[in-house]
Design brief:
The structure holds 2 protein chains of 2 kinds. Helices cover 27% and strands 22% of the residues of chain A. By secondary structure, chain A is an alpha/beta fold. Chain A has a single domain, classed as Rossmann fold, CATH 3.40.50. Chain A has a 9-stranded mixed β-sheet with strand order 2-1-3-6-15-14-13-10-11. A two-stranded antiparallel ribbon of chain A has the order 4-5. The relative contact order of chain A is 0.14. In chain B, strand 1, helix 2 and strand 2 form a beta-alpha-beta unit. In chain B, the strands form 3 sheets. In chain B, strands 2-1-3-6-13-12-11-9-10 form a 9-stranded mixed β-sheet. By secondary structure, chain B is an alpha/beta fold. Chain B has a single domain, classed as Rossmann fold (3-Layer(aba) Sandwich), CATH 3.40.50. Chain B has 9 helices and 13 strands. Classes of the chains: A alpha/beta, B alpha/beta. At the A-B interface, helix 1, helix 2, helix 3 and strand 10 of A face helix 1, helix 2, strand 2 and strand 9 of B.
Chain lengths: 341, 308
């Protein structure tokens, strides 16, 4: 018990030190030196190089579109994690609403893998007792606590299923599980679960209170499938201090890869009692003809700094791009969208 | 011992949350203003946090979206171009030389669709704001693109601009300059008075000062001659004559209003209140009906790409 506590303490301390060091790296970057071949040799603005001479954005063979927006995050440490995979990937940052337009077969030659750390269709609301927000997007879904969630564009709704049917790699991280919950339930089926921490919500016809989030939670993430290409050779799992969730995961629709030892004190605060709390922390699945990976881990710099986490997600990106994963998905298609597009 | 360990855990948690939160201070990533801006990068490293914090600081007027190559050029497709009101370019792709079959360098090409889509895109009347190193984009593979901006740079390779070849461009970081306003009536220079002081990287690149319809807005007091780029000069680099002191202009590209601002290398410039005013004005003007009407009345014809 004491040993475990000490391990957790170490995980938290390492995380804290990393965040502090990332912050100072950013400052150093503003004074820092170094240059890029063929670029102006100015003394400033060199923050956030990929490390090891890697250019920002990497230069590896797998082309990845990294999608964000809708949820604030620590930007530079996040980008540095992507740069750290730069010998395997070349990544491009494309935020909403540009990402929505790109998620179409029309542009699919540009990318092999689509990676999401976004919260598509985020709600706007006001605090209790305050007047409703003035910036309500058109066509929004209104929740019981007066939050308003915009729907995806018609073009996105039409094109995204076609892209999934084409067969591409999809990687969803952490709060990407909260995208489009109220306005596009099929999207949650693509990911394999759904969250909304700010409003009562309905998932698969079951009404939930606000889902749960538990910041900076020391956890052990156990690999429950050690033979999968994503986990192979990574041991039993890893310690991490990260935000944990109590969300509605679709245990019956996914192939588990990892579970957390975190247990919420009272799951009924966040989940309808009809749904048992799931400690799933990562899975793979198929959406239409595409391989999908999701992990709940990865809120912030304390998780992104853990070498095992980087290996785990780095493997997931490589797996999602691999001919084996694409062939597996095509051999095990999962129809989600009714449209015949 | 157990008690002490628990206290230590909570101390570490509090420390981590405190430090983590500090980097999230300055809430409002992406802004919430009415002007939809695509901020385009790739091809040149930059201080990402400082840059994005700068765009957040304009968030009352704009909602911005980071958009990198190769996705960025796809937005020249008129079918999706209206996703944004203004396209702001801080990119510099197309400079990586690899030896071709004949031993001559070959450079990265823009997306196949981009050359075909550019003129129809510009004819829609979109706001374009180019700044700092963006005239280095596609110089070797798309000369008409450099001509559209009115300037071409490459600090590692020779530059071809309007059919003439120039040596590698000059760049000098951390230069204290005074930027003079030379057009005090234009909406972009409002609030800047006679000019402003700034410490910023400056360039020596070919500029088409006499381009038809180009309206000068700003000039630097830095003298752009090769001796004033001491690092390069000491290494034997030479550049003929005196370069342009133009530091900002507007012109039209087909029916689109186009701005170029030479400033804006790094956080020193981005934190300069005058530069913030300048960029805010430039974005607001490029998005305005007034600018679009002006461009529609004063269209310029872009030379068709030879590979169209």
């Amino acid at each position: 018990m004491r040993r475990r506590l000490l391990k957790r303490l170490m995980a938290v301390a390492v995380g804290a030190l990393f965040v502090a060091s990332a912050a100072s790296t950013q400052l150093a970057g503003q004074r820092g030196a170094g240059g890029q071949t063929g670029a102006p040799a100015a003394p400033a603005a060199r923050g956030g190089r990929g490390g090891g001479g890697m250019p920002q954005g990497g230069r590896g063979p797998i082309k990845v579109m990294v999608v964000t927006k809708g949820h604030n995050y620590e930007r530079e440490p996040f980008f540095q994690m992507w740069d750290s995979w730069g010998s395997d990937i070349t990544w491009s940052h494309v935020e909403h609403p540009a990402a929505d337009a790109m998620l179409s077969p029309k542009y699919s030659k540009l990318f092999d893998v689509y990676a999401f750390f976004d919260l598509g269709g985020p709600g706007v609301g006001s605090r209790a007792g305050q007047p409703p927000p003035t910036n309500i997007p058109a066509g929004s879904f209104k929740t019981a606590n007066n939050r308003f969630y915009p729907p995806p564009s018609e073009q996105f709704k039409t094109e995204f299923p076609k892209l999934l049917r084409e067969g591409k790699g999809f990687v969803f991280l952490h709060h990407a599980s909260a995208a489009w919950l109220h306005t596009w339930p099929e999207y949650s089926e693509v990911v394999g679960g759904a969250c909304d921490w700010y409003a009562p919500n309905r998932v698969r016809g079951i009404d939930h209170p606000n889902h749960g989030y538990f910041g900076m939670t020391p956890q052990f993430i156990s690999f429950v499938d050690k033979s999968h290409p994503i986990t192979k050779g990574l041991g039993d799992g890893f310690y991490v201090t990260d935000e944990a969730y109590a969300c509605h995961w679709f245990e019956d629709s996914v192939q588990p890869l990892a579970r957390t030892d975190f247990q919420p004190a009272d799951p009924t605060k966040n989940l309808n009692p009809k749904v048992k709390y799931s400690n799933l922390a990562a899975w793979v699945k198929v959406a239409e003809n595409s391989p999908v990976f999701f992990t709940q881990v990865g809120h912030g710099a304390t998780a992104w700094a853990v070498p095992a986490y980087r290996q785990f997600v780095g493997n997931a990106i490589k797996w999602a791009a691999s001919p084996e994963a694409l062939a597996w998905a095509k051999a095990n298609p999962k129809r989600i969208f009714n449209s015949s597009n | 011992m157990r008690m002490i360990s628990r206290k230590l855990v909570w101390f570490a948690v509090a420390l981590a949350i405190g430090v983590g939160s500090a980097s999230l201070l300055g809430q409002g990533q992406w802004g919430s203003g009415p002007i939809k801006v695509a901020v385009i990068t790739k091809g040149h490293n930059f201080d990402r946090d400082g840059f994005f914090n700068f765009w957040d600081s304009l968030g009352q007027d704009i909602t911005w979206t980071h958009l990198q190559h190769p996705a960025a050029l796809e937005f020249f497709d008129p079918a999706i171009a209206d996703t944004f009101d203004v396209y702001a370019f801080y990119d510099a792709p197309g400079r990586t030389a690899t030896p071709g079959p004949d031993g001559k360098p070959t450079y990265e090409q823009p997306n196949a669709s981009a050359k075909k889509n550019l003129i129809p895109f510009l004819q829609k009347g979109k706001g374009l704001v180019f700044f700092h190193h963006s005239p280095a984009a596609w110089n070797h593979t798309w000369p008409e693109y450099s001509e559209m901006i009115g300037m071409a740079c490459d600090w590692g390779n020779e530059v071809t601009f309007k059919g003439k070849t120039y040596p590698n461009s000059g760049a000098q970081g951390g230069v204290k300059q005074h930027i003079s306003v030379v057009n005090k009536t234009h909406p972009i220079t409002q609030g800047l008075g006679d000019g402003f002081d700034i410490v910023d990287e400056t360039y020596l690149c070919p500029v088409d000062e006499k381009a038809k319809g180009l309206i000068p807005l700003l000039r630097t007091d830095f003298e752009p001659i090769d001796k004033n780029f001491p690092g390069r000069y000491a290494g034997g680099w030479r550049y003929p004559g005196v370069g342009s002191t133009l530091a900002g202009w507007v012109r039209t590209a087909e029916k689109s209003p186009l701005v170029y601002l030479q400033n804006g290398h790094d956080a020193v410039a981005w934190k300069n209140p005058a530069f913030q005013t300048l960029m805010r004005n430039a974005i607001k003007w490029a998005a305005s009906q007034e600018a679009r009407d002006w461009a529609a009345k004063n269209p310029s014809r872009l030379r068709k790409s030879s590979s169209n």
